[in-house]
Fold each of these.
Amino acid sequence: MIRKCLRVYFWFICLFIAVYTIFYFDDGVPLEFLDYVDWVFTLISLSGVYAYCYSKPFLSIMFWKVFLVLLIIWDLFFVSTAFTEDTEVYSGEFGLTVIVVFACLYIFLLVPSYIALYLLPKEFDGDDSYKMEA
């Protein structure tokens, strides 16, 4: 059941990223260094979600264990920088509401990938034929 839900999540996120990318790059604002790093984390994370959803071993078990911890730390850092960049939005009349909606959106978008990346090493932990493919 969880694998089917994560498959839906995977394809939803792929579509979301495609649409977001079109609109984000269309406004002509240049990317900052943190944006590039976030894209790297996002693409690696998505490849891990795909590997779990479709039972495709990719990279090593230890990589995914370490990457999950780094991803959570990175996401907390990246989201916190988003809160500190635009203080006008969060300090207005609906400041708390905006923060709560923003936090719920991020939880909805990020937690399923954490679950898949947590389950991925467990999926292939006892498999002796599990080899690093990349």
Note: The first helix runs from residue 2 to 26.
Amino acid sequence: MNIPSLYKPQRGSIPAQSLVTLAGTANGRLASAALLEAIGQPHHYAGLGNCLALCVDHGLLLKERDGNLTFWSITSTGLSVARELSAPDDQQVDAPAEARAPRQPAQEPKPDDTGADFALTANGRLLIEANGRQVMLDQAQTDKLIEYIDAQRGVEWEAA
């Protein structure tokens, strides 16, 4: 039985790329290193489990451990979501006609727009998305980056 998912990852994100990639494999299953390589991420990236946790929680993917290896398998629900993510924006699966109609941008991009999005979480992680790629820094890496930027700008903080 294929139950529609309430969760659909953003196009271009690591979860979306993973779903589409797994849907395109012969058996819908890949090891972490192979999946990372297929989506253009370093094979040793340790954050894949965190990135795909919502996909597992919502039944789009299955996570299996075999010794030191982790394998990811797509479910039938995940296949449906991958099909939606693979469809061109103007041909979204099961989208109402008005949603498929061409949309005008709300406003023209500013010339100084970097094309990158940043989010700092409550637990100190920094999420960066640029050019369809996502990077997540843990709190220690985020602190080191902030210290580096402060040093480059000549900012000195007084000890509390």
Note: Residues 139-153 form the longest helix (15 residues).
Amino acid sequence: MTSEPRGAAVALLLSAGAACVGYAPGLEVAVSYEAAPMTLAVLTDDGGRVQLDTAELAIEALELVPCDAWTAALGALGPARAWAHGVVEGESAGGVRLDVLHDGGTSVAAGVLRPLPGRYCAARLHLERLAIEGRAERGGRWTSLAFARALDRDLRVPFDAPMDLDADALNAGFGRNALRVRFDAAEWFDGIGHLSEERLAEAIVTNVLGSFTLVCNPRAGTDE
């Protein structure tokens, strides 16, 4: 697994109150997270069932990745979605702990980015911790499903189309933008029906890493 260069993304860490050095005054991106509505019983894609008591995900920070850095990273790593070990540099604020069973279907505010004007092609999330408790039906029998894992992963997720943040948008009154990070936790349990106990946790972590999408709204508070 390849670590991405620390200079590959402009340091635009979430900050609820502290000003970032060098940002364009008035240019802000409000960040939120939204899990798809979740039921206690999940049907997996291979016909198995999962019954959950706990499903929690902690995300420490988020950065925007400029398009030139994103293109360079793709050239080095290949896939359109890649992750690496490592800790986001600099002070971290605005992290969230998502209780997927209870927060599903609601938008959880995580803070405000104050970026430099530019074109951004991806967001980099620092995933901190995952905790799962419940039962899984695998191979026709029910087994316990319980683990808590420190992820400590940087996950880079691309926008469907670049997010343009520039002075023209600011002057037109679109200085306040919104970025919503969405995921469906039901996808976390796909393909686990025939895995051994040793491979189960890592398979769920891999599914978590692939479950995120980004929604960029022209104004904070709009839905898409």
Note: Residues 8-217 form one domain.
Amino acid sequence: MTYAGWEIVGRNDQELPFAKTVGDALRDLIRRRYRSNAAKTIERDWDLDARTARNVVGQGNVSERTLTKAVRAEGWELLAALGAELTGETYEQFVERKLRQAIREADDARSNLVHLRARREALDALTADSDAPGAGPDAEQVGAGPGDDRGSPDQPRPRRTGTAAD
């Protein structure tokens, strides 16, 4: 098991478990499944030597070779149980969670699509309005007359000549 030390003032270090290892999870599963004679049972069922079986049940020491023997003997049930022990959720719960996540993402994408379609329609309407006769850059601007020098932004401003009295 992974531990971190935490020193409490005036006391010895306290070990805090932060995560279970595969060996710890396997040990806990074996202890729950076989209340008595666990080491002898897995020694026989998994084809282990006595010392290895005692290490698995006692300390949770599991080598890759031992784990392979255990999986071959127990099958998918052991892998599913280890997964649940290590993650805190069963495979069914994991699949359910992923399905809910996919549904949420699809709903978000659908909502985004509706928003984008409405935005495109609004832009299309604006484009259609600017293409109508009397609209656009060539149209006469409101307030543009002989004394108004605002004119179109595309056209240069007229130059004033003479004095202010003219």
Note: The chain has a mean pLDDT of 80.
